[in-house]
Amino acid sequence: MVLNFLGSGSGFADNHTSAYFTTNDKELVIIDCPVSAFQKLKRMKLGDYEQIYVFVTHTHGDHVGGLGLFAQYVFFVLKKKLTIVAPSSDVFEDILTIMKIEGNDSEWYNLEHVLNLAEKPWLKGCIPTVHSPQLERKCFGYKFFANGETIIYTGDTATLKHFLERMEDVKELYVDTSVYYGMIHLKLEDALPKFLELNQSGVEVFLMHLDDANAAEKMVANYPKINVVR
Ligand SMILES: [Zn+2]
Ligand SMILES: [Zn+2]
Hints:
six-stranded mixed β-sheet, 13 strands, Metallo-beta-lactamase, Chain A, globular, binds zinc ion, alpha/beta
């Protein structure tokens, strides 16, 4: 597993799903920033990094709840500017609103559209997906080159469709999966055959954003290339 996780639970869990990796240029790349991730991030040695990014998948509270606080922490404690990355113009505007409501001065952080980071060797693009109807066309996953491997991180998603079209070179798939709740998330029993197919083509699967990690672990106990992120 090339990503480090700050949490792997879904909306009502204690630790919401968020992950990070570091680059050769002393950059810290974080995916989503719930409050539970902020609590862990502030205990890390963040001063060692030249640049800290937070890539936002979508604006549900369990993904951006700690963003405003973290931006303030980076500015006032680390004396740096956090770079927040929006996957689309719509999400860019929504993040701007969230930051304003939380009392952040626009001088305290950078907000970038993902297209402005296209030259980064570790960024392979963002992938639109379908999640909740209230955030229609505002939910995305990302493809990264992290620690020598090409990976896809779905963010919250109800479908694998757009990710399956972008699987070239992918070695690890980090995917939103629920045991009980389907609808706006992938249900494990429905997605399992597809995960096994991906295993056959050399992709290791990591289940995240779980509603019941113990139950998920039981369901995939016989499949060594399907892992439950704890
Ligand atoms: Zn979520
Ligand atoms: Zn969500």
